[in-house]
Amino acid sequence: MLQFPIQSYKENVIYTQDGEAFGYYKVLENTVGINEQEAENTLVHHLQRLAWQLVPFGEIDYKIVPVPVDIDKRMDRLQKQYEGRYAEIGKYYAERAKEILREEAKHVVEYKFFVGVKLKRQELDENILGTFVSSVKSMNRYIQKLGGFKEHAVDDLTARMFEESEDDAFKVLNQYLTVQRVKESELRYIIRHQFVRGQEQIETGESVFSLTEGLLDPGKAGYLHIKQLDHESWCAFLPVSDFPVDLSYKEWAYFFQSYHFPVEVNMRTIYKGKKEDENKTNMIKKRFRDQDAQLIEANEDDDSLINLGRVLLHELENDIRNQGKPLLRTHINFVVYGKTKEEVRKRAKMLKLGFKDQQIELVQPLADQLLLFHQSLPAAKIVAEDWEQVLTPESFGESLFSLTRKIGNTVGFYLGKNISHEGESIGNSQSLVFYHPFLAQLGLEGSHYSSPHVTISGPTGMGKSYLLKDILLNAIFFGAQILATDPKNEMEKKFKQALTPELERSIPFFKELIESFNYITFSPHKKDAGKLDPLTFLDGEEAYDTAVAVLEYLSELQPSERNIKTEIYQAVREVVQQEEKPGLLKVVNRLMKSEDQEVMKVGHYLYEIGTNGVAKLMFSDGNVSGISLSEQVNILQIQNLTLPEDGEKPATRDEHIAVALMIPLAKFATKFARDDSKTKITIFEEAWMLTNTGQGHKLIKEMLRTGRSLRSAVYIITQSTFDYNRPDIKENIGTKFAFKAKTAEEAGNIIEFLGLEDNEANHKMLKNLREGQCIMEDMYGRTAKIQTDVLFNEWVNAFNTKENDKGRAETEEAFM
């Protein structure tokens, strides 16, 4: 008869019925970037070394537990952070997100990794024993129960016996993996999980008996039926019955994480010592000799796989004899579960097929399901001996135990899905990506970056603006003040186009949201002239430097024309110091009156530019009213701006003026960001234009460097990451999104910018990204290929930057 193994538990240690103890530890997830073989090899090496170092403990219990993603709990925690004017609207959308994700993501889990180490008993000296025997704490367990002690209480003497070994285990594990001692609540979760697989886990109490409530029925061959009072589920244990000779790149504790259903893994390894290991290899050698005799008798040729096995066995014998390499007698079972037996049948079939592709055989034993259930319990003994596999540290390392697909934040708004694995899409991926725009600057444990700044890069039409607007609308619910530059003059137009009469009736919150934004439009009309004149909204040296930068850029002066530059500097200085209401037109007037003919010509040239078209925005006589940023969301739009081609330098005068306008616009945004009384986001659309000017590049660097201390995040939306791919800049960026690379050169630049491995697979992936797909690097330095996904139709319509095709697409597709 099977005996439940757990007698009691305390902190992170389980004490068994036969006086043994296991210490349990939670392994912090490891991640590797996309196609990053070097990082993967590093994890393999660490796992190999760990397998060697754990030999003295004798027995190790590895567990991968799929924990359901609690959408409601995450959204509830998110809502508590909402504040300010838009908090109630944010809560409305969080509730809608709950409803959608509950259905779309009902099987979504996060994989948690645990290691249990069998602890060595320490002999205590007589003084400690004598003191303890006289203590009330040494009462036997029966008396403890009668006296009302907690059933899971452990006497101090028992705990002291395993203290030193527990500390040793903790230190050894942390040499190769990052681990924490599990909390008692986590230990209870692992125990209770065994009895509610496929059901909601509800806290039942601390006693071992309450944790093990449930009726187990192995009546259906190959399955186990789990019954609770109000719920039931089915599960199947699938032990590994055969491993290939070579386990390289099999990733057998990782690849299944992309499946649409949860998979649990229980892996017990036992070390028996050098002598036993040598005996084991001798037994295998005998089998080879028997096979050779059979082949000779049957007059058959040698099997290539058998020949390879002989070579590996010879190497292993030498390693055991000369290096003391351990053998890991391993019992591995995978568990699938669900609401019905049919659901479990389909999942088991899919899992077995997936492992078969890796040349790993899983079986579904008809009669051993209850034995395998018992063997999966924490601290249990091996009772199903038939499925033992002998591994080396190298083959164990290839499991990639502790590797996870996690990207983004645990609590945040829904951003999309991780689609890094081949064949994944927004429709079939079960790996959700959440994002919080105000966590990076907190310097959380494990974070690689402590900066709130973000870059979003990629060519037109691939989804940059779509992603930006999704982040923008979600960010305002946290009470953040927003200033966005919109050189394309499209945001207000697209937002308000989405406000259909039907939408206004059904979702009035969206109308309230969109119409509350402060759209500040800069036009070529006389009423807007001078509104971006740096001498009107800046002071002192800052006004001087920015004015000089604008005039120099517009003048297109050559390095040899120092005399003209000098007079521009002097004219600006005089206007700033002498005029009560300075303005760039006053500077131009001084240049036009210069005795130097070349300077005078430049003055007239600047006058023509500054009094015609959109450039009027930068030139005033000083009599202009300031721009009000009284609202929480402010969007600066410029009409009739002729932008250069994607990422190209300006080729015409209009394009040159457009880039020049970005200088005072960026400076205006910098002034906004310096107010540290509120959390802020400053957004630079088409930011690549700024880097075409030295002043603009300087501004970006300044904001990235000081933003964290000013509670100000900068969002850089650009065609190319080239100008930001410098150590002093990219280290100040906390989160990066990179959409499709149009050229091989740009793909290489993105790879360097994101710290990806420079290989053919990553180049190919970047060039083949589709609309809405991008590579994300989060605040923890993790990278993944994600598909952005907006849950609300009215947002989708408002974010769409494509013009109405008037039926052209439908007509084209009709004849395909």
TrEMBL record:
<dbReference type="Pfam" id="PF12846">
    <property type="entry name" value="AAA_10"/>
</dbReference>
<dbReference type="InterPro" id="IPR027417">
    <property type="entry name" value="P-loop_NTPase"/>
</dbReference>
<dbReference type="InterPro" id="IPR051162">
    <property type="entry name" value="T4SS_component"/>
</dbReference>
<dbReference type="InterPro" id="IPR016628">
    <property type="entry name" value="ATPase_SAG2001_prd"/>
</dbReference>
<protein>
    <recommendedName>
        <fullName>Conjugal transfer protein</fullName>
    </recommendedName>
</protein>
